[in-house]
Every structure is written in C-alpha cells, then in structure tokens.
Design brief:
Layout lengths: L5 H12 L1 H12 L11 H13 L5 E3 L7 E7 L6 E7 L20 E3 L2 E3 L3 H19 L8 E7 L10 H7 L7 E4 L7 E6 L1 E10 L3 E2 L9 H12 L11 H9 L1 H8 L3 H4 L4 E9 L5 E2 L2 E10 L5 H13 L4 E8 L3 E2 L5 H14 L4 E5 L5 H5 L5 E3 L13 E3 H20 L2
Parallel strand pairs: 3-6, 3-7, 7-17, 8-16
Antiparallel strand pairs: 1-2, 2-6, 4-5, 5-18, 8-15, 9-13, 9-14, 10-12, 11-13
Helix pairs in contact: 1-13, 2-4, 4-13, 11-13
Bound molecules: zinc ion.
The site of zinc ion has 5 residues, from helix 4.
C-alpha cells in the first residue's frame, strides 16, 4: 500500500481519533426526524448548526422557507485556487405510521450490530455528514490548501422541491464552484458522473361510455388505453447519441453498474425505459369504461433529447385521437467528465483505503448533483450502499459510513491542495 503524505495521514488520524464523535453526530442526525413530505427540517438543521457553531466554522442559513432552511458555509484556503462545493440533503423519505417491520424504530438513530439504523441513514444523512465533516476538517487546516470550499446542506430534495438546491443554484451564486462532491447512496465500487432523466407523462383516454351489454354503442376507454400502452413501447427503441467519453466509461463499467444497481442495470442505463406507474379508470364491471388515466414514467439516458422522445409519443397520440396528454415532470439527463481530476482523486484514495478502484458510472435514479451538471460544473456522487432505502430497516454500517467520510475528506484535500 502506498504511503500517504503527512497532511493526509494526519487527516486519517484525526478521523480515527474522532470516531465516536462522528458516529454520534451521524446517529443523532438520523434520530432527528426530517421527513418530506411534510418537509419541516428545523430540528435537523439545528443539529447541523449546533455542531458548526461549536466548532467555530463559518456558515449561514439560506431560508426562502424558514421551515426548510439550507445551511451554506464558505471558507477560503491560503491562496486563490479552485472552488470545491460539497452538497447533501437534510430531508428524508417519510415513514408509514405504525410500520412494524422496523427492527429499530425508524426515527431511533439506533447504533447496533455495527450499523446506524433509521430513515435517512443511507439516503442521505451518512453522505451529508461526510460533507459536513469534510468542511470541518478542511476548515481547521486552511493554511495547507488553496482555493475555496463551500458546504451546502439542503432541505427540499425528496420532492424535487424549489426551496433547496434549486433555490441555491438560481439565487446564491457562491454555490456554483468548479466541482461538486455529493454522498448520495451509491456503492463503494462506483463514482456517479451522470444520471438518467425522468419524463413523467399522464394520458387521459375518454369515450362516450355505455351499458356493458351495449358494446356497439361506445368505444371502450380501457381497451384503448391498453393499446396506447403497447404503442408507447416505441420510445424504448430510440438509440442515444452519447458523447464518446461517456460511452467509453459505461462500456468499461458494465460489471460495476450491475453490482451497484442490480443485475440487468448495465443494459438499461443507455436505453430509454418505459414504466407504467399507474392506471386508473372505469366505473363498474357492467359499464363500458369511458375514462381511463395512464401515468407513464419514461427515463431518458445521456444522449437522448426530450424532443426525440416527444416526437415518438406524438406519433402514438396521432393514432389515438381519444387520448390527451400532459407532462407531469421532466428533468433532462445529465453527465460530466467521467475521467476528471476529482474522479482520479476518489479512485486513488479508495485504492489506498480499501484496495480497489471505483469506476465512473451513470445512475438510474436522480440527485441534486444534476443541477450543477446542468450548469456545466462537474458533479460526482460517492456514497454508501442503499440498504433499505425507501423501504424499512434502512441502515448504514459504521465501516461504510467512515469510508465515505475518509474518501470525501481526502479527495477534497487533494483537489484543493494540488494544481
Ligand atoms: Zn437522496
């Protein structure tokens, strides 16, 4: 194993010394509920603010909605240089009231069996803690690096809301640096440099309707909807026009992609996918259905434009005059340089810490990192495995948590101390 330079070894030693403090901060963070909806994150924001205040670190609250504030801190190194931004979200998925499947209560932040348990442990209070601690350790040694480091902990992520990262990138220019690092759940074996873009469409099929015996009197909206759904599969035949470096990274990371997101995911990362998430309609078994709503979740890979998909959808609609369509949500796919300096730092540090090199991949799901990529700022996600994410018994092992902290701290230091 290669030896680390003195500063980096000192950072690792400090993390080892502070192990109990780090786990305690993380577990209490998980133990402070911040479900969204409803999205009131005041107590979780106070948990972060208390720590930063006690350590004497610069920060302020940016709160277009005081119930869901964002924590923003900026600190400068010894000389001008590059600007690294750290980003994580404070809000978490909600939990169904009385869900008895949790071994430890969803808001317990229990530390047991070498793991921290509770809603938001992996998505993403482990990663947000890594951002906060990276800001903490690097702020304490500002004379040893150049440039600027900005911390952004945001409140309104889980619902694609406007009060969190979207507000910051639009209204607070200091959060737009030269590179972004984020600890959303992913896998220790992969670095996410891009993500697919969701396009959610709602179709409404309407007919006259009739008595169920009088099928000659009206077209059936349910049967028409079934044909419409079949025809929509055409979008999955669209082929992407990928930048060559993205195509190369994906080809080199097929195994890693399947490992990170499940067998079969490498096949669909570069494809348009169609999920029919919801079908509702009809009134009664002995009536001809006169109204059916179909909600489709289409995912665009890097290299496919919205216009290309919509042209296919319009062709389908032209064959179904009984159907209307509306767009519920669209986020373009995003990507950045898969072989950048930051990717190299993360790979070198993980190699040192764990003995393997994570590979750059594109993820299926979305994160706030896309908002930086939309502005041509390279943005990378390196976080813990998604155990129990969006389900029950969400947890992160203390080893995985500390690994993400170490990887972020060392890579941020490398980025700001070189070149
Ligand atoms: Zn998340």
């Amino acid at each position: 194993m290669a030896t680390m330079n003195a500063e980096k070894q000192a950072l690792l030693d400090a993390i080892e010394r502070d192990r109990d403090m780090l786990v305690d901060f993380f577990a209490r963070f998980v133990g402070t509920p911040s479900p969204n909806p409803p999205g009131d994150t005041r107590k979780a924001v106070a948990h972060i603010a208390r720590f930063l205040e006690a350590q004497g670190h610069a920060f302020r609250l940016v709160d277009p909605d005081p119930l869901q504030a964002n924590v923003v801190g900026t600190t400068d190194g010894a000389a001008p240089g590059k600007h690294l931004v750290l980003n994580g979200h404070i809000d978490v998925f909600p939990v169904e009231e009385g869900d008895a499947r949790w071994t430890h209560g969803p808001w317990s932040g229990a530390v047991a069996d070498g793991k921290v348990w509770g809603r938001g442990a992996c998505d993403m209070k482990a990663g947000t803690t890594a951002s906060i601690m990276t800001y903490h350790y690097l702020s304490r040694m500002r004379s040893r690096w150049k440039g600027r480091l900005t911390l952004t902990c945001v409140s309104d992520e889980e619902t694609f809301g406007p009060m969190g990262a979207r507000h910051l990138v639009e209204k607070v220019p200091e959060v737009l640096g030269d590179c972004l690092l984020n600890g959303e759940p992913s896998s220790p074996f992969s670095i996410r440099f891009g993500e697919k873009g969701p396009l959610w469409l709602a179709f409404e099929v309407r007919t006259r309707g009739a008595h169920g015996a009088y099928v000659h009197a009206s077209e059936n909206a349910a049967k028409l909807a079934a044909r419409l759904i079949q025809d929509l599969e055409a979008v999955t035949e669209i082929r992407p026009d990928m930048p060559p470096d993205v195509a190369r990274a994906l080809a080199e990371a097929r195994e890693t992609t399947d490992r990170a997101m499940g067998p079969g995911s490498a096949d669909i990362v570069p494809r348009v996918t169609l999920n029919i998430g919801r079908v509702a309609g009809g009134l009664k078994v002995n009536m001809v259905a006169d109204r059916v709503r179909v909600e489709a979740d289409i995912r665009l890979p890097v290299g496919v434009e919205l216009a290309t998909v919509m042209a296919e959808v319009e062709k389908v609609l032209a064959r179904h005059p009984q159907a209307t369509m509306e767009v519920i949500n669209f986020q373009p796919p995003s990507s950045c340089d898969p072989f950048s300096e930051m990717v190299g730092h993360l790979q070198d540090n993980v190699q040192h810490l764990r003995g393997f090199r994570p590979k750059p991949i594109v993820s299926l799901g979305g994160t706030d990192a896309r908002l930086w990529r939309y502005r041509a700022i390279p943005a990378y996600v390196y976080g813990p495995p998604p155990a129990g994410m969006g389900s029950f018994d969400e947890h992160v092992s203390i080893d995985d948590f500390l690994h993400v902290v170490r990887s972020h701290v060392l890579s941020a230091y490398d980025y700001l101390s070189r070149g």
